[in-house]
């Protein structure tokens, strides 16, 4: 039996597909850039960042984390020709609210010893300061041997309260 979420997916996709006319778009992003941003459900990257279908790669993860995104960024650049990265974190991010120890304690409480063992040593990569988190991730990308010096990298904050972005670095 399909869940309500699955039923919604099927219904909304059928509506979308009935008027879909973008199947001709090329595999590489037309504007040759990638966005790393948070998976937060309050962010609509296409609308908030002005991304049309086919323009850019959008890589989403908890906190808009550069280290989590590196695999996708390398594929985006080396195999699909992007040459710019916009790293965009946001206000009110959950990654600002805990430390590694807190996350590991919750995992152990909820999943027991097996969950604790599987995630032992995992760095959840929280950050206590938003702007510093942006600066640190941009620095990581700029210093990475996997990202060519020719790639333009900038760091931004999206304000979930106003819908505005501001450049940090």
Automatic annotation (TrEMBL):
Its cofactor is Zn(2+). Zn(2+) binds at residues 38, 40, 90, 93. Coiled coil: none annotated. It is an enzyme of class 4 (lyase). One of its GO terms (molecular function) is zinc ion binding. Its EC number is 4.2.1.1. SMART domains: Pro_CA. Binds 1 zinc ion per subunit. It catalyses: hydrogencarbonate + H(+) = CO2 + H2O. Pfam families: Pro_CA. Keywords: Lyase, Metal-binding, Zinc. Belongs to the beta-class carbonic anhydrase family. Reversible hydration of carbon dioxide. This is Carbonic anhydrase.
